[in-house]
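Reviewers of the previous submission asked for a worked example of the structure-prediction workflow described in the proposal, so we include one complete record here. The input consisted solely of the amino acid sequence. No template or homolog information was supplied to the procedure at any stage.
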Amino acid sequence: MDDIDRAILAVLERDGRISNADLAEAVGLSPSPCLRRVRRLEDDGIITGYRAVIRPSAMDRGLRVIVGVRLSRHARDAVAAWESGVTRLPAVTACHHVTGSFDYLLQVDVKDLAAYERFHAEALAGLPELGAVTSFVVMKTLEP
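From that input alone, the workflow returned the following structure tokens.
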């Protein structure tokens, strides 16, 4: 990957819907070589997809909670069972295996506090190997 590839990625990261002609102009290429580079980046798995970023409240998910989870056991089978279960929960919009005080940090998007309470009591508590949960209600998100 060279500086032009990195420039293409930077532009696409900001605007995945940019036209190839505008992308080519932004990175100083003509359209054909620019398109070839984008396709190569896709084929090589560097660009893994394109998506729409949707305001959570438009999808009736106006409350975001960051959830720190500690597992009760760390044996491979226990971790695999927990990961399999948590990734099936629709309210979990991101799951990160982390170091530090928690084993996992989850991003949970739900309608409101009552919906989070149901999620916590029914979905999350029903997962295998759940040890401890700490919830952080997001009050505001700052965009860089």
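The chain has a mean pLDDT of 95. We consider this example representative of the routine output the project will generate in years two and three.
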